[in-house]
Design goal:
By secondary structure, the chain is of the alpha+beta class. The chain has three helices and four strands; from the N terminus they run ααββββα. A four-stranded antiparallel β-sheet has the order 2-1-4-3. A hairpin with a 4-residue loop joins β1 and β2. The radius of gyration is 20 Å and the shape is flat. Zinc ion binds next to loops.
């Protein structure tokens, strides 16, 4: 954790003029949202025409959500970020501490909790600190508790397997 240098970009609390890059980023987030909505509409239409397929997909989604719910990163691994959004609102968001900035891994936009714009691109950001600072990182009792929960990687593998199964089901149904 100490090795991660968290970046900052602009000063979220200061006056800010949107750049061409911000507009491009917002546009690309909008396009992704449109594509996702279109896909969801397609799935919905398929499911309306085929209640059995709907049941199968529902079961898979439920399972995937349960697996995600079973996985929670400890607070000392969660970094808080102050971000300025495309819509002009300044809000707080959280990311895993291994991310050097909050725009990584396809999360360059978010739903604005203030005005509801969804998505709203992150245009400036600064790290605020971990949700929970470890009192003494060298003291083993304050380290992350050992648990037999799934690791993130195992979880992702299982979700990928579920998605594969989903795709196979879909193909088997014929479309
Ligand atoms: Zn907003």
């Amino acid at each position: 954790m100490a090795d991660v240098a968290h970046e900052r970009h602009g000063v979220p609390l200061e006056a800010y003029e949107l750049t061409r890059r911000d507009h491009a980023s917002q546009k690309s987030s909008d396009q992704i949202r449109d594509a996702v909505n279109k896909q969801a509409e397609k799935w919905q239409a398929e499911e309306e025409a085929d209640p059995e397929l709907r049941e199968q997909r529902y079961a898979h989604r439920k399972k995937a959500l349960e697996m995600l719910g079973a996985f929670k990163n400890p607070d000392h691994q969660i970094m808080r970020w102050r971000v300025r959004l495309y819509c002009g609102h300044i809000v707080e968001t959280k990311r895993h501490c291994t991310m050097v900035n909050p725009r990584m891994h396809g999360s360059s936009s978010m739903r604005c909790p203030d005005c509801g714009k969804d998505p709203s691109a992150i245009v400036a950001y600064e790290p605020l600190g971990l949700v929970a600072e470890l009192a003494n990182p060298r003291n083993p009792s304050t380290q992350a508790p050992k648990s037999n929960r799934l690791t993130r990687t195992q979880l992702e593998q299982r979700i990928a397997a579920l998605e594969g199964e989903n795709a196979r089901l879909k193909t088997a149904q014929g479309s």
